[in-house]
Amino acid sequence: MNHAExxxxxxxxxxxxxxxxxxxxxxxxAVLATEESPPAAFAEIATTPADDLTMLRQRLLxxxxxxxxxxxxxxxxxxxxxxxxxxxxxxxxxxxxxxxxRAFVVVGPVLNEQIKTLGVDVAMAPPDSAQRGDAEGxxxxxxxxxxxxxxxxxx
Length: 155
Description:
mainly alpha; 2 domains; 9 helices; about 70% helix; elongated
């Protein structure tokens, strides 16, 4: 996995609240510690306060791209799945993150339509109904398809 893809992933993951700034700083620290001649941008990232998410995202642009690749988008979906499966996020919070993913990240038309359809299905189903349970099950199943997509960016 190249640095540009990783930086792009971390930038989007910060925007969506899927990771903390400490994770990005640790990544930059690891690059600085293991590479012979790392780009100077990594020193900028590593010395950014972990709680200054705006500055971290800005400095990640020194390495990454502004537009997310399909691989990055799938990895973001993988993180959304992990948060839901672990109980870190409720299904309602997960639906909010998926809505933000569509709004703030450039996703392809097929993925955009899938997420939109899932969101509409959940929103239109009456609470505590079989229809809602089925819609939520479709969200969980769709996210489960991305279960392993986040792994390359977090190792």
